[in-house]
Automatic annotation (TrEMBL):
Keyword Oxidoreductase: yes
Domain Proline dehydrogenase: 120-446
Record's protein name: Proline dehydrogenase
General function of this protein: Converts proline to delta-1-pyrroline-5-carboxylate.
Catalytic activity: L-proline + a quinone = (S)-1-pyrroline-5-carboxylate + a quinol + H(+)
EC number: 1.5.5.2
Gene from which this protein is expressed: PUT1
Length: 466
């Protein structure tokens, strides 16, 4: 997941896990409680364990919603009561008229069609204590069949930094808020949206005969990240007390073979260019999917390489968005407990390093992108009592828009978390409909855990009290 948010490609060859195997793999948090039981052979030094952590009920959050929002959530709950119904919804969803999707579904999970609508979404989030967003323009072509103008996507993404993220940040900075109480604004870059025939380009990233396409992808990511870098330098000169980035370019993850062959190297190139060790803030982060069995080892190697070559990494940690479509199941942890242990171990290592070393940490910046309550509480407890340290201010908690809202509400209301954001997809209605379908396909288990019959009951109880 955000796993994030993270993850709006048209997936090629989405494959369902055979019946009988689904329960062995991780893609969601239990709706009732979340505990980490480290599997044999995995040692988690320094991890804080919260025993029998019960995921907060949605009741408190639902009381803040309008009747229209409650009605839409009730419909989502009915559509996700069990796996057969959800599977049927997924099959029928492409045939649902677009206007119905825009009325009942998109407002919950998407930021809007235009920059103004997304800014309005940002203002609504601020009223809930969520003071920034990770924007994702939902236009891409992972399968190379749409004939999309890549330059248009690059230009629109750059515009969104200036027309959405910058005004949202400036309004808060100029309001007199503590400059360090506002989390960064993030812009998600999907490699599969930024070059033609992206799967082949990433698979052949280091082959000389693919140099032209490789350079095009690097240049497109660099054009966007350069805008972020420039804005960071501009605002840092005006607000020198700021201890974290104002804006962050975020490289989203791809499937395992694309990640290993191309995305990791793309991230390294951008880190070395935009995250020099001499800078007090980073401008670019990459994504590690921690349901991959070799993810911790890959990250450890990247950390050592960053130290050697003099740049900072920047991390977004997700469990992973491709649980149902990875063709080689051996690359994924066999159990949910192993994945949870790996996530919490890597999370603990990164947070402790940031707290100990501040702006000298080679982790640079961390986004804990998860709907898992224990992981979010683990990060919260590790950061407790750190006040306004550089390390604490460079850790952001994140969830997808419209998902895990009970957890988001609990973190803000009961644990006074300020550095928290939502991953906000936005763009043309047809593209956002495609995004919603992909989200159902990739995160169906998480959607059912978040919704289903418990949500229907909670919505009815809340509606009757209004």
């Amino acid at each position: 997941m955000l796993s994030g948010v993270s993850r709006i490609a048209i997936r090629s060859g989405t494959r369902r896990v055979p019946m009988g195997l689904t329960h062995r793999f991780v893609s969601h948090t239990s709706a009732n409680k979340s505990t980490v039981v480290p599997p044999s052979g995995i040692h988690n030094p320094g991890v804080i364990h919260a025993e029998q952590q019960h995921v907060p009920a949605p009741d408190d959050y639902l009381r803040n919603l309008s009747k229209n929002e409650l009605f839409s959530l009730g419909m989502i709950g009915m559509c996700t009561i069990n796996k057969p119904i959800l599977d049927l919804v997924i099959k029928l969803f492409p045939y649902v008229p677009l206007f119905l999707v825009k009325i009942f579904v998109s407002p919950l999970y998407c930021g809007g069609d235009t920059p103004k609508e997304v800014i309005d979404t940002g203002k609504r989030l601020q009223k809930r204590g969520i003071n920034n967003m990770m924007l994702s323009l939902t236009i891409e072509d992972a399968e190379g069949i749409k004939n999309i103008d890549i330059n248009y996507i690059v230009e629109e993404t750059i515009k969104s930094v200036h027309s959405i993220l910058k005004p949202v940040m400036l309004e808060q900075l100029e309001s007199g808020k503590d400059v360090n109480s506002i989390p960064p604004g993030y812009i998600a870059l999907k490699p599969s949206a930024l070059v033609a025939n992206p799967a082949e380009v990433l698979l052949n990233f280091n082959k000389p005969e693919w140099k032209t396409q490789r350079d095009e992808l690097i240049n497109n990511c660099s054009r966007i990240t350069q805008e972020v870098f420039n804005l960071n330098q501009e605002l840092l000169a005006k607000y020198p007390d700021r201890k974290s980035p104002f804006f962050v370019s975020t490289i989203d993850a791809e499937k395992y073979d694309l990640q290993k062959n191309g995305v990791y190297e793309l991230q390294r190139i951008l880190f070395s260019k935009f995250n020099p060790a001499s800078s007090p803030i980073v401008s670019c982060i990459g994504t590690w999917q921690l349901y991959l069995a070799d993810s911790a080892a890959d990250l450890a190697k990247d950390y050592e390489r960053a130290k050697k070559e003099g740049y900072k990494l920047g991390l977004k940690l997700v469990r992973g968005a491709y649980i149902h479509s990875e063709p080689d199941r051996s690359v994924i942890y066999a159990t949910k407990e192993e994945t949870d242990a790996n996530y919490n171990k890597v999370l603990t290592t990164a947070v402790n390093d940031l707290l100990a070393n501040g702006e000298k940490s080679y982790y640079g910046h961390l986004v804990v992108a998860s709907h898992n309550y224990e992981s979010q509480m683990l990060a919260t407890k590790l950061l407790a009592g750190q006040k306004q340290s550089v390390g604490k201010l460079n850790v952001t908690l994140a969830q997808l828009l419209g998902m895990a809202d009970n957890i988001t509400h609990d973190l803000i209301t009961n644990h006074k978390v300020e550095n928290i954001i939502k991953y906000v997809p936005w763009g043309p209605p047809l593209e956002t409909k495609d995004y919603l379908l992909r989200r159902l396909q990739e995160n169906g288990d998480a959607v059912r855990a978040d919704n289903g019959l418990p949500l229907v009951k909670a919505v009815l109880k809340t509606a009757l009290r209004m």
